[in-house]
Amino acid sequence: MKARISTIVTILIFFFTVSVQAQTFEQPVLISSAGQSADVKLVKMLAQRQGLDATTILMAKPADLTGFKTLIIVPGFSSKGLGAAGISQQEEMERVQTLIKSANDLKIPIVMLHIGGNARRKGQSDAFNQIVAENSKAMVVVRQGDEDGFFTGISKAKNIPLTLVDKIAETATPLGNLFK
Amino acid sequence: MIRNHLSTIIIFLVTAAAGVIAAISFGKMHHPEELYPSTFLTKKGMLSDYFDGIKGTNGDTEVYLFDSGVEGGTALLGGGTHANEAASFLASVVILENLKVTQGRVIIIPRMNNSAFTCSDPMEGFPEYFGIPTDNGTRTFRLGSRVTNPLDQWPDPLVFAQYPSNQQLSGFETRNLNRAYPGRPDGNLTEKVAYAIIQLIDKENVNIAFDLHESSPEVPIVNVIVYHEKYEDIAMGAVLGLEMAGLQFSPETSPKNFHGLSHREWGDFTNAVPFLMETSNPSMGRLRGKTDVDLVLRGYCDNYKKAKETGALRIAYREDTGEPIEHRVGRHIMGFKELINSYNYYYPENQIVIENLPDYDLMMENGVGKYLNN
Ligand SMILES: [Zn+2]
Protein backbone atom coordinates (compact mmCIF):
# COMPACT_ATOMS: atom_id res chain seq x y z
CA MET A 1 0.00 0.00 0.00
CA LYS A 2 2.75 2.36 1.04
CA ALA A 3 4.74 1.50 -2.05
CA ARG A 4 1.71 2.14 -4.23
CA ILE A 5 1.21 5.58 -2.69
CA SER A 6 4.81 6.47 -3.22
CA THR A 7 4.58 5.29 -6.84
CA ILE A 8 1.55 7.46 -7.38
CA VAL A 9 3.28 10.39 -5.73
CA THR A 10 6.36 9.85 -7.90
CA ILE A 11 4.25 9.74 -11.03
CA LEU A 12 2.42 12.88 -9.98
CA ILE A 13 5.69 14.66 -9.29
CA PHE A 14 7.00 13.45 -12.63
CA PHE A 15 3.99 14.83 -14.49
CA PHE A 16 4.14 18.06 -12.54
CA THR A 17 7.81 18.49 -13.32
CA VAL A 18 7.31 17.66 -16.98
CA SER A 19 4.41 20.08 -17.29
CA VAL A 20 6.44 22.83 -15.63
CA GLN A 21 9.54 22.05 -17.64
CA ALA A 22 7.51 22.17 -20.82
CA GLN A 23 7.22 25.88 -20.15
CA THR A 24 10.62 27.24 -21.02
CA PHE A 25 10.89 30.74 -22.25
CA GLU A 26 13.45 32.38 -24.44
CA GLN A 27 15.34 35.63 -24.29
CA PRO A 28 15.53 38.54 -25.00
CA VAL A 29 12.68 39.59 -22.75
CA LEU A 30 10.52 42.67 -22.83
CA ILE A 31 9.19 43.75 -19.42
CA SER A 32 6.15 46.01 -19.22
CA SER A 33 3.51 47.15 -16.77
CA ALA A 34 -0.25 46.83 -16.75
CA GLY A 35 -1.55 49.63 -14.56
CA GLN A 36 1.74 51.51 -14.08
CA SER A 37 2.46 50.53 -10.48
CA ALA A 38 6.08 50.84 -9.33
CA ASP A 39 6.23 47.03 -8.98
CA VAL A 40 7.52 46.78 -12.53
CA LYS A 41 10.72 48.55 -11.44
CA LEU A 42 11.39 45.84 -8.88
CA VAL A 43 10.83 43.15 -11.50
CA LYS A 44 13.25 44.95 -13.78
CA MET A 45 15.89 44.69 -11.07
CA LEU A 46 15.07 41.04 -10.28
CA ALA A 47 15.45 40.18 -13.96
CA GLN A 48 18.79 42.01 -14.08
CA ARG A 49 20.03 40.12 -11.06
CA GLN A 50 19.01 36.85 -12.69
CA GLY A 51 21.15 37.88 -15.64
CA LEU A 52 18.23 37.97 -18.05
CA ASP A 53 18.63 39.83 -21.30
CA ALA A 54 15.70 42.12 -20.55
CA THR A 55 14.50 45.54 -21.61
CA THR A 56 11.89 47.44 -19.63
CA ILE A 57 9.38 49.68 -21.36
CA LEU A 58 6.70 50.81 -18.91
CA MET A 59 4.24 51.75 -21.66
CA ALA A 60 5.22 49.17 -24.28
CA LYS A 61 3.22 49.22 -27.51
CA PRO A 62 2.90 46.45 -30.14
CA ALA A 63 5.79 47.90 -32.19
CA ASP A 64 8.07 47.48 -29.16
CA LEU A 65 7.65 43.70 -29.28
CA THR A 66 9.92 43.40 -32.31
CA GLY A 67 12.91 41.20 -31.56
CA PHE A 68 11.67 39.92 -28.20
CA LYS A 69 10.91 36.30 -27.47
CA THR A 70 9.10 36.64 -24.17
CA LEU A 71 6.90 39.36 -22.68
CA ILE A 72 6.81 39.75 -18.91
CA ILE A 73 3.89 41.83 -17.67
CA VAL A 74 3.64 43.14 -14.13
CA PRO A 75 0.01 44.03 -13.37
CA GLY A 76 -1.04 46.49 -10.68
CA PHE A 77 -2.94 49.76 -10.75
CA SER A 78 -1.36 52.96 -9.49
CA SER A 79 -3.10 56.30 -9.90
CA LYS A 80 0.22 58.00 -9.25
CA GLY A 81 1.95 55.92 -11.90
CA LEU A 82 -0.77 56.73 -14.42
CA GLY A 83 -0.54 60.38 -13.40
CA ALA A 84 3.21 60.38 -14.00
CA ALA A 85 2.63 58.75 -17.39
CA GLY A 86 -0.08 61.29 -18.16
CA ILE A 87 -2.72 58.76 -19.17
CA SER A 88 -6.12 57.61 -17.93
CA GLN A 89 -7.00 54.18 -16.60
CA GLN A 90 -8.99 53.49 -19.72
CA GLU A 91 -6.13 54.45 -22.03
CA GLU A 92 -3.85 52.16 -20.03
CA MET A 93 -6.32 49.29 -20.33
CA GLU A 94 -6.57 49.81 -24.07
CA ARG A 95 -2.78 49.80 -24.37
CA VAL A 96 -2.54 46.56 -22.36
CA GLN A 97 -5.26 44.88 -24.42
CA THR A 98 -3.53 45.80 -27.68
CA LEU A 99 -0.13 44.69 -26.39
CA ILE A 100 -1.46 41.32 -25.26
CA LYS A 101 -3.31 40.79 -28.52
CA SER A 102 -0.16 41.55 -30.53
CA ALA A 103 1.96 39.26 -28.38
CA ASN A 104 -0.56 36.46 -28.88
CA ASP A 105 -0.66 37.07 -32.63
CA LEU A 106 3.15 37.02 -32.78
CA LYS A 107 3.25 33.91 -30.57
CA ILE A 108 5.38 35.73 -28.00
CA PRO A 109 4.53 34.01 -24.72
CA ILE A 110 3.51 36.18 -21.76
CA VAL A 111 4.75 35.64 -18.21
CA MET A 112 2.89 37.36 -15.40
CA LEU A 113 4.62 38.52 -12.24
CA HIS A 114 2.27 39.79 -9.53
CA ILE A 115 4.40 41.00 -6.64
CA GLY A 116 2.37 43.79 -5.05
CA GLY A 117 0.29 41.67 -2.64
CA ASN A 118 -2.94 43.11 -1.24
CA ALA A 119 -2.06 46.60 -2.38
CA ARG A 120 -2.30 45.49 -6.03
CA ARG A 121 -5.48 43.42 -5.73
CA LYS A 122 -9.15 44.24 -6.13
CA GLY A 123 -10.19 47.83 -6.70
CA GLN A 124 -8.85 49.10 -9.98
CA SER A 125 -6.08 46.47 -10.10
CA ASP A 126 -8.09 43.31 -10.72
CA ALA A 127 -9.13 44.13 -14.26
CA PHE A 128 -5.42 44.36 -15.11
CA ASN A 129 -4.59 41.27 -13.04
CA GLN A 130 -7.26 39.24 -14.78
CA ILE A 131 -6.47 40.05 -18.39
CA VAL A 132 -2.74 39.48 -17.85
CA ALA A 133 -3.20 36.27 -15.85
CA GLU A 134 -5.63 34.75 -18.34
CA ASN A 135 -3.31 35.44 -21.25
CA SER A 136 -0.14 34.24 -19.57
CA LYS A 137 1.78 31.00 -20.08
CA ALA A 138 3.23 31.14 -16.55
CA MET A 139 2.51 33.07 -13.39
CA VAL A 140 4.71 33.93 -10.45
CA VAL A 141 2.75 35.47 -7.58
CA VAL A 142 3.61 36.72 -4.12
CA ARG A 143 1.22 34.75 -1.93
CA GLN A 144 -0.40 37.72 -0.21
CA GLY A 145 -1.93 38.66 -3.56
CA ASP A 146 -3.63 35.27 -3.80
CA GLU A 147 -5.16 35.03 -0.33
CA ASP A 148 -8.63 34.71 -1.85
CA GLY A 149 -7.44 32.23 -4.51
CA PHE A 150 -7.84 34.70 -7.38
CA PHE A 151 -4.74 33.57 -9.27
CA THR A 152 -5.01 29.92 -8.20
CA GLY A 153 -8.51 29.92 -9.69
CA ILE A 154 -7.30 31.27 -13.04
CA SER A 155 -4.36 28.87 -12.98
CA LYS A 156 -6.66 25.87 -12.52
CA ALA A 157 -9.34 26.99 -14.93
CA LYS A 158 -6.87 27.76 -17.72
CA ASN A 159 -4.22 25.20 -16.82
CA ILE A 160 -1.49 27.83 -16.45
CA PRO A 161 1.44 26.92 -14.18
CA LEU A 162 1.50 29.11 -11.09
CA THR A 163 4.37 29.54 -8.65
CA LEU A 164 3.50 31.10 -5.30
CA VAL A 165 6.25 32.62 -3.16
CA ASP A 166 6.17 34.41 0.18
CA LYS A 167 8.31 37.41 -0.60
CA ILE A 168 9.07 39.63 -3.57
CA ALA A 169 12.76 38.78 -3.43
CA GLU A 170 11.83 35.08 -3.63
CA THR A 171 10.35 35.55 -7.09
CA ALA A 172 13.89 35.89 -8.44
CA THR A 173 14.71 32.17 -8.60
CA PRO A 174 11.45 30.95 -10.19
CA LEU A 175 11.73 33.87 -12.62
CA GLY A 176 15.25 32.83 -13.59
CA ASN A 177 14.23 29.15 -13.82
CA LEU A 178 11.60 29.96 -16.43
CA PHE A 179 14.44 30.75 -18.82
CA LYS A 180 16.63 27.71 -18.05
CA MET B 1 -2.66 105.77 46.72
CA ILE B 2 -0.30 103.23 48.31
CA ARG B 3 -2.74 100.50 47.30
CA ASN B 4 -2.52 101.64 43.71
CA HIS B 5 1.26 101.51 43.79
CA LEU B 6 1.21 98.15 45.53
CA SER B 7 -0.87 96.54 42.80
CA THR B 8 1.40 98.05 40.14
CA ILE B 9 4.42 96.62 41.92
CA ILE B 10 2.81 93.19 42.28
CA ILE B 11 1.82 93.09 38.62
CA PHE B 12 5.32 94.19 37.67
CA LEU B 13 6.96 91.50 39.84
CA VAL B 14 4.68 88.73 38.60
CA THR B 15 5.28 89.74 34.99
CA ALA B 16 9.03 89.94 35.57
CA ALA B 17 9.04 86.49 37.22
CA ALA B 18 7.07 85.00 34.31
CA GLY B 19 9.50 86.66 31.91
CA VAL B 20 12.53 85.26 33.73
CA ILE B 21 11.06 81.74 33.83
CA ALA B 22 10.19 81.93 30.14
CA ALA B 23 13.64 83.32 29.32
CA ILE B 24 15.35 80.45 31.16
CA SER B 25 13.12 77.93 29.45
CA PHE B 26 13.73 79.51 26.02
CA GLY B 27 17.43 79.91 26.72
CA LYS B 28 17.78 76.21 27.48
CA MET B 29 16.58 75.37 24.01
CA HIS B 30 19.70 77.03 22.64
CA HIS B 31 21.95 74.53 24.38
CA PRO B 32 21.95 71.33 22.37
CA GLU B 33 21.99 68.11 24.39
CA GLU B 34 25.28 66.26 24.68
CA LEU B 35 25.79 63.37 22.26
CA TYR B 36 28.18 60.48 22.90
CA PRO B 37 29.74 59.22 19.65
CA SER B 38 31.07 55.67 19.46
CA THR B 39 34.79 55.17 20.10
CA PHE B 40 35.33 54.78 16.36
CA LEU B 41 34.72 58.49 15.72
CA THR B 42 37.78 60.02 14.08
CA LYS B 43 36.93 63.71 13.89
CA LYS B 44 34.37 66.20 15.10
CA GLY B 45 34.04 69.38 13.12
CA MET B 46 31.44 72.02 12.37
CA LEU B 47 29.33 72.69 9.31
CA SER B 48 30.89 76.17 9.16
CA ASP B 49 34.20 74.45 8.31
CA TYR B 50 32.69 74.09 4.84
CA PHE B 51 31.17 77.57 4.60
CA ASP B 52 32.18 80.17 7.15
CA GLY B 53 29.15 82.31 6.34
CA ILE B 54 27.25 80.38 9.02
CA LYS B 55 29.97 80.62 11.67
CA GLY B 56 28.63 82.03 14.93
CA THR B 57 24.99 81.59 13.85
CA ASN B 58 22.40 79.12 15.12
CA GLY B 59 22.64 77.43 11.74
CA ASP B 60 26.09 76.07 12.55
CA THR B 61 26.08 72.49 13.75
CA GLU B 62 28.33 69.54 14.61
CA VAL B 63 29.66 67.31 11.86
CA TYR B 64 30.95 63.87 12.92
CA LEU B 65 33.37 61.90 10.78
CA PHE B 66 34.08 58.18 10.93
CA ASP B 67 37.06 57.38 8.73
CA SER B 68 38.00 53.70 8.51
CA GLY B 69 41.37 54.53 7.01
CA VAL B 70 40.58 51.98 4.31
CA GLU B 71 39.97 53.38 0.85
CA GLY B 72 36.31 53.32 -0.15
CA GLY B 73 33.25 55.51 -0.62
CA THR B 74 31.83 58.23 1.63
CA ALA B 75 28.31 58.37 3.05
CA LEU B 76 26.56 61.38 4.59
CA LEU B 77 23.74 60.80 7.06
CA GLY B 78 21.57 63.78 7.99
CA GLY B 79 19.08 63.75 10.85
CA GLY B 80 16.99 66.65 12.12
CA THR B 81 16.29 68.46 8.86
CA HIS B 82 12.87 68.89 10.47
CA ALA B 83 13.53 69.09 14.20
CA ASN B 84 9.95 68.07 15.10
CA GLU B 85 10.52 64.61 13.58
CA ALA B 86 11.84 62.75 16.61
CA ALA B 87 12.85 59.50 14.92
CA SER B 88 14.85 61.32 12.25
CA PHE B 89 17.10 62.98 14.84
CA LEU B 90 17.16 59.96 17.16
CA ALA B 91 18.08 57.48 14.42
CA SER B 92 21.09 59.61 13.52
CA VAL B 93 22.05 59.76 17.22
CA VAL B 94 21.81 55.96 17.61
CA ILE B 95 23.95 55.52 14.50
CA LEU B 96 26.44 58.13 15.78
CA GLU B 97 26.73 56.39 19.15
CA ASN B 98 27.23 52.84 17.77
CA LEU B 99 28.82 53.08 14.35
CA LYS B 100 31.99 51.34 13.31
CA VAL B 101 33.21 51.89 9.76
CA THR B 102 35.62 49.30 8.37
CA GLN B 103 35.85 50.58 4.81
CA GLY B 104 35.33 54.08 3.48
CA ARG B 105 33.92 56.93 5.55
CA VAL B 106 30.63 58.00 7.12
CA ILE B 107 29.79 61.60 8.01
CA ILE B 108 26.89 62.28 10.38
CA ILE B 109 25.06 65.56 10.97
CA PRO B 110 22.41 64.86 13.62
CA ARG B 111 20.97 68.41 13.55
CA MET B 112 20.86 69.43 9.92
CA ASN B 113 18.74 72.48 10.77
CA ASN B 114 20.21 73.37 14.14
CA SER B 115 18.20 76.58 14.43
CA ALA B 116 14.95 74.56 14.21
CA PHE B 117 15.96 72.75 17.41
CA THR B 118 15.84 76.06 19.32
CA CYS B 119 12.09 76.60 19.01
CA SER B 120 8.81 74.72 18.68
CA ASP B 121 6.08 74.95 16.06
CA PRO B 122 3.46 77.48 17.21
CA MET B 123 -0.13 76.29 17.75
CA GLU B 124 0.79 72.61 17.64
CA GLY B 125 1.05 71.86 21.36
CA PHE B 126 4.19 69.78 20.93
CA PRO B 127 6.16 68.92 24.06
CA GLU B 128 9.52 70.73 24.21
CA TYR B 129 11.47 67.63 25.23
CA PHE B 130 11.16 63.88 25.28
CA GLY B 131 13.04 61.39 27.42
CA ILE B 132 14.44 58.00 26.48
CA PRO B 133 15.12 55.62 29.36
CA THR B 134 18.62 54.11 29.26
CA ASP B 135 20.66 51.87 31.56
CA ASN B 136 22.05 55.00 33.22
CA GLY B 137 18.82 56.94 33.68
CA THR B 138 16.95 59.04 31.15
CA ARG B 139 18.41 60.88 28.17
CA THR B 140 16.48 64.01 27.34
CA PHE B 141 16.20 65.24 23.76
CA ARG B 142 14.76 68.38 22.25
CA LEU B 143 11.69 68.22 20.08
CA GLY B 144 12.04 71.23 17.82
CA SER B 145 10.29 72.88 14.93
CA ARG B 146 9.82 71.95 11.30
CA VAL B 147 11.51 75.20 10.29
CA THR B 148 14.27 77.64 11.21
CA ASN B 149 13.64 79.70 14.35
CA PRO B 150 12.00 83.03 13.38
CA LEU B 151 14.46 84.74 15.77
CA ASP B 152 17.20 83.64 13.36
CA GLN B 153 15.37 84.48 10.16
CA TRP B 154 12.60 87.04 10.04
CA PRO B 155 10.26 88.15 8.55
CA ASP B 156 8.91 85.58 6.12
CA PRO B 157 7.93 86.93 2.71
CA LEU B 158 4.29 86.61 1.69
CA VAL B 159 5.31 84.28 -1.10
CA PHE B 160 8.56 82.35 -1.07
CA ALA B 161 10.36 82.20 -4.41
CA GLN B 162 12.64 79.18 -4.19
CA TYR B 163 16.19 79.81 -5.39
CA PRO B 164 17.21 79.20 -8.16
CA SER B 165 14.05 77.52 -9.53
CA ASN B 166 11.82 80.49 -8.67
CA GLN B 167 9.11 77.98 -7.72
CA GLN B 168 6.47 79.78 -5.62
CA LEU B 169 5.66 78.41 -2.18
CA SER B 170 3.96 79.83 0.89
CA GLY B 171 6.10 82.32 2.82
CA PHE B 172 6.56 80.00 5.78
CA GLU B 173 8.52 77.56 3.60
CA THR B 174 11.31 80.10 3.33
CA ARG B 175 12.53 78.66 6.66
CA ASN B 176 12.19 75.02 5.57
CA LEU B 177 15.66 73.52 4.99
CA ASN B 178 14.16 70.87 2.76
CA ARG B 179 12.99 73.54 0.31
CA ALA B 180 16.22 75.52 0.42
CA TYR B 181 18.66 73.39 -1.60
CA PRO B 182 21.01 74.08 -3.30
CA GLY B 183 21.03 77.27 -1.23
CA ARG B 184 23.26 80.30 -1.77
CA PRO B 185 26.09 81.94 0.15
CA ASP B 186 24.40 85.35 0.32
CA GLY B 187 20.86 84.11 1.02
CA ASN B 188 18.86 83.85 4.24
CA LEU B 189 20.12 81.61 7.07
CA THR B 190 18.25 78.53 5.82
CA GLU B 191 19.70 78.99 2.32
CA LYS B 192 23.17 79.44 3.82
CA VAL B 193 22.84 76.19 5.79
CA ALA B 194 21.68 74.41 2.62
CA TYR B 195 24.63 75.90 0.76
CA ALA B 196 27.04 74.72 3.50
CA ILE B 197 25.66 71.16 3.22
CA ILE B 198 26.15 71.20 -0.55
CA GLN B 199 29.74 72.44 0.00
CA LEU B 200 30.34 69.58 2.43
CA ILE B 201 29.00 67.02 -0.06
CA ASP B 202 31.34 68.42 -2.73
CA LYS B 203 34.45 68.86 -0.61
CA GLU B 204 34.18 65.48 1.08
CA ASN B 205 33.31 63.73 -2.21
CA VAL B 206 30.18 62.23 -0.68
CA ASN B 207 28.96 59.28 -2.78
CA ILE B 208 25.68 58.46 -1.04
CA ALA B 209 23.66 60.85 1.13
CA PHE B 210 20.69 60.30 3.43
CA ASP B 211 18.08 62.71 4.70
CA LEU B 212 15.88 61.17 7.42
CA HIS B 213 12.29 62.31 7.97
CA GLU B 214 8.94 61.46 9.48
CA SER B 215 5.43 62.23 8.22
CA SER B 216 1.83 62.18 9.32
CA PRO B 217 0.28 58.73 8.84
CA GLU B 218 -2.31 60.12 6.42
CA VAL B 219 0.01 61.67 3.83
CA PRO B 220 0.77 59.58 0.73
CA ILE B 221 4.56 59.75 1.06
CA VAL B 222 5.16 57.69 4.19
CA ASN B 223 7.15 54.51 4.86
CA VAL B 224 8.97 55.30 1.66
CA ILE B 225 12.40 55.59 0.17
CA VAL B 226 12.43 58.60 -2.13
CA TYR B 227 15.13 58.27 -4.76
CA HIS B 228 16.56 60.39 -7.55
CA GLU B 229 15.74 58.87 -10.92
CA LYS B 230 19.45 58.40 -11.74
CA TYR B 231 19.73 55.83 -8.96
CA GLU B 232 16.56 53.77 -9.26
CA ASP B 233 18.38 50.43 -9.15
CA ILE B 234 20.02 51.15 -5.80
CA ALA B 235 16.63 52.03 -4.32
CA MET B 236 14.98 48.90 -5.74
CA GLY B 237 17.80 46.68 -4.47
CA ALA B 238 17.33 48.13 -0.99
CA VAL B 239 13.54 47.72 -1.13
CA LEU B 240 14.09 44.02 -1.86
CA GLY B 241 16.69 43.65 0.88
CA LEU B 242 14.37 45.33 3.37
CA GLU B 243 11.49 43.13 2.30
CA MET B 244 13.65 40.08 3.03
CA ALA B 245 14.18 41.55 6.50
CA GLY B 246 10.40 41.81 6.90
CA LEU B 247 10.15 45.57 6.36
CA GLN B 248 7.99 47.06 3.66
CA PHE B 249 9.23 50.28 2.06
CA SER B 250 7.64 51.82 -1.03
CA PRO B 251 10.01 53.25 -3.60
CA GLU B 252 9.07 56.76 -4.74
CA THR B 253 10.76 58.75 -7.50
CA SER B 254 11.71 62.29 -6.64
CA PRO B 255 9.41 64.60 -8.63
CA LYS B 256 11.46 66.39 -11.30
CA ASN B 257 9.86 69.78 -10.91
CA PHE B 258 9.42 70.03 -7.15
CA HIS B 259 12.44 72.06 -6.13
CA GLY B 260 14.53 72.70 -3.06
CA LEU B 261 14.29 69.14 -1.70
CA SER B 262 17.35 67.11 -0.78
CA HIS B 263 16.41 64.12 -2.96
CA ARG B 264 16.07 66.40 -5.97
CA GLU B 265 18.81 69.01 -5.60
CA TRP B 266 21.55 66.84 -4.05
CA GLY B 267 21.09 64.59 -7.06
CA ASP B 268 21.03 67.50 -9.55
CA PHE B 269 23.77 69.68 -8.01
CA THR B 270 26.27 67.17 -6.57
CA ASN B 271 27.75 63.77 -7.38
CA ALA B 272 26.08 62.16 -4.37
CA VAL B 273 23.35 59.55 -4.68
CA PRO B 274 20.56 60.98 -2.48
CA PHE B 275 17.90 59.09 -0.54
CA LEU B 276 15.17 60.39 1.72
CA MET B 277 13.26 58.10 4.05
CA GLU B 278 10.01 58.79 5.90
CA THR B 279 8.53 56.93 8.84
CA SER B 280 4.96 57.30 10.11
CA ASN B 281 4.63 59.55 13.15
CA PRO B 282 1.08 59.97 14.53
CA SER B 283 2.13 62.93 16.71
CA MET B 284 2.55 64.94 13.50
CA GLY B 285 -0.84 64.05 12.03
CA ARG B 286 -3.95 66.18 11.72
CA LEU B 287 -6.17 63.48 13.26
CA ARG B 288 -4.12 63.13 16.43
CA GLY B 289 -5.57 63.54 19.89
CA LYS B 290 -3.67 64.86 22.91
CA THR B 291 -0.16 65.77 21.78
CA ASP B 292 2.19 64.64 24.50
CA VAL B 293 5.46 62.78 24.97
CA ASP B 294 3.58 59.49 25.10
CA LEU B 295 2.20 60.07 21.61
CA VAL B 296 5.64 61.06 20.30
CA LEU B 297 7.26 57.93 21.75
CA ARG B 298 4.57 55.26 21.87
CA GLY B 299 3.01 56.44 18.63
CA TYR B 300 -0.35 55.03 19.61
CA CYS B 301 -3.50 57.01 18.88
CA ASP B 302 -7.12 55.81 18.96
CA ASN B 303 -8.14 58.40 16.37
CA TYR B 304 -5.83 56.82 13.83
CA LYS B 305 -7.09 53.37 14.69
CA LYS B 306 -10.65 54.55 14.04
CA ALA B 307 -9.69 56.41 10.89
CA LYS B 308 -7.90 53.39 9.51
CA GLU B 309 -10.84 51.13 10.31
CA THR B 310 -13.22 53.30 8.30
CA GLY B 311 -11.09 52.48 5.28
CA ALA B 312 -11.84 55.92 3.87
CA LEU B 313 -8.19 56.94 3.75
CA ARG B 314 -4.99 55.13 3.03
CA ILE B 315 -3.27 55.48 6.39
CA ALA B 316 0.16 54.20 7.34
CA TYR B 317 -0.77 53.22 10.87
CA ARG B 318 -0.63 49.82 12.53
CA GLU B 319 -3.88 49.45 14.46
CA ASP B 320 -2.58 47.03 17.08
CA THR B 321 0.82 48.41 17.90
CA GLY B 322 0.80 52.00 16.73
CA GLU B 323 4.07 53.47 15.45
CA PRO B 324 6.42 53.44 18.45
CA ILE B 325 9.77 55.22 18.39
CA GLU B 326 11.82 51.98 18.35
CA HIS B 327 9.90 50.89 15.24
CA ARG B 328 10.52 54.22 13.52
CA VAL B 329 14.19 54.46 14.52
CA GLY B 330 14.67 50.78 13.64
CA ARG B 331 13.24 51.33 10.16
CA HIS B 332 15.55 54.29 9.53
CA ILE B 333 18.61 52.32 10.63
CA MET B 334 17.66 49.31 8.49
CA GLY B 335 16.96 51.57 5.52
CA PHE B 336 20.38 53.20 5.97
CA LYS B 337 22.08 49.79 6.11
CA GLU B 338 20.25 48.28 3.16
CA LEU B 339 20.72 51.31 0.93
CA ILE B 340 24.45 51.20 1.66
CA ASN B 341 24.44 47.44 0.88
CA SER B 342 22.66 48.10 -2.36
CA TYR B 343 25.05 50.97 -3.20
CA ASN B 344 28.00 48.62 -2.59
CA TYR B 345 26.48 46.12 -5.01
CA TYR B 346 26.48 48.71 -7.80
CA TYR B 347 29.74 50.43 -6.85
CA PRO B 348 31.98 47.53 -5.76
CA GLU B 349 35.09 49.64 -6.39
CA ASN B 350 33.94 52.25 -3.89
CA GLN B 351 32.39 50.37 -1.01
CA ILE B 352 31.36 51.62 2.40
CA VAL B 353 31.32 48.92 5.06
CA ILE B 354 29.61 49.61 8.37
CA GLU B 355 29.16 47.54 11.51
CA ASN B 356 27.69 47.63 15.00
CA LEU B 357 24.26 49.01 14.13
CA PRO B 358 21.30 47.22 15.73
CA ASP B 359 18.93 45.27 13.50
CA TYR B 360 15.25 46.13 13.51
CA ASP B 361 14.29 43.09 15.59
CA LEU B 362 16.83 43.90 18.29
CA MET B 363 15.70 47.50 18.36
CA MET B 364 12.09 46.36 18.83
CA GLU B 365 13.11 43.94 21.55
CA ASN B 366 15.42 46.21 23.52
CA GLY B 367 14.16 49.72 22.82
CA VAL B 368 16.14 52.76 21.68
CA GLY B 369 17.72 53.45 25.08
CA LYS B 370 19.73 50.25 24.96
CA TYR B 371 21.66 51.73 22.02
CA LEU B 372 22.44 55.11 23.58
CA ASN B 373 25.83 55.55 25.23
CA ASN B 374 24.80 57.34 28.38
ZN1 LIG C 1 10.45 66.02 7.36
Named at the architecture level, the CATH assignment of chain A is: 3-Layer(aba) Sandwich
Please give the share of residues in helix of chain B.
25-40%
Cα gyration radius of chain A (Å):
17 Å
Structurally, how many domains make up the residues of chain B?
Answer: 2
End-to-end CA span of chain A: 37 Å
What's the level 1 CATH class of the largest domain in chain B?
A: Alpha Beta
Per DSSP E runs of 2 or more residues, the count of β-strands of chain B stands at 14
Extract low-pLDDT stretches of chain B.
Answer: none
Treating each run of at least 4 consecutive H or I residues as one helix, how many helices of chain A? 7
The major pleated sheet of chain B works out as: 8 strands, mixed
Which sequence of strands runs across the widest sheet of chain A?
Answer: 2-1-3-4-5-6
| Radius of gyration based on Cα positions of chain B | 21 Å
Strand content of chain B: 15-25%
Strand content of chain A: 15-25%
